[in-house]
Amino acid sequence: MQDSRHNARILALQQLFELYFHKQNLDQNDKNTELFPINKILEEDEIKDYDKALFRELIEGMPVNEIQIDEIIEVLAPEWPIDKIATMDLQILRIAILEGFILNITPEKVAIDEAIELTKEFSNDQSRKFISGVLGNLIENKSKYIK
Fold first, then answer.
1. For 4-145, CATH number?
2. Nearest to 90 by CA among 17, 10, 7
3. What is d(CA 102, CA 41) in angstroms, rounded to the nearest whole number?
4. C-beta separation of 107 from 95 below 8 A
5. pLDDT per position as a tens digit, 81-136
6. Could you tell me the end-to-end alpha-carbon distance of the chain, in angstroms, rounded to an integer?
7. Measured between alpha carbons, how far is 65 from 72 in angstroms, rounded to an integer?
8. What is the distance of C-alpha 80 from the center of its chain?
9. Whether 20 contacts 33, CB under 8 Å
């Protein structure tokens, strides 16, 4: 059985990855970049149901909070500048921080567990350890970083 909230995170991850990729790799004057249609992603990933409200909150919340999230990541992982973190790993971190710590729409530990699940599906063991370490550091020191 598919988990609609997990599916929403998968879709948000793919859309945010694509947006960030275009932002980093295309001419900044090219404003006509079209995203891969969500219905095609649903078909490709064989997703039958997803939490539309969670998806919308993640997609709409990221541009508003991205600078704050990146500042948190930079403090938590000073040896890894934002532009050196793999794009997929960066988006997974951003989603977990946004969902569990900034918007508080999911318990922090659930957001971290979901981030680890996403790394299992979309990244590798080294990335999983990195993301787990950053988010573990955040949960231990959140009063320093989350206002």
1. 1.10.940.10
2. 17
3. 27
4. no
5. 999 999 999 999 999 999 999 999 999 999 999 999 999 999 999 999 999 999 99
6. 37
7. 11
8. 17
9. no
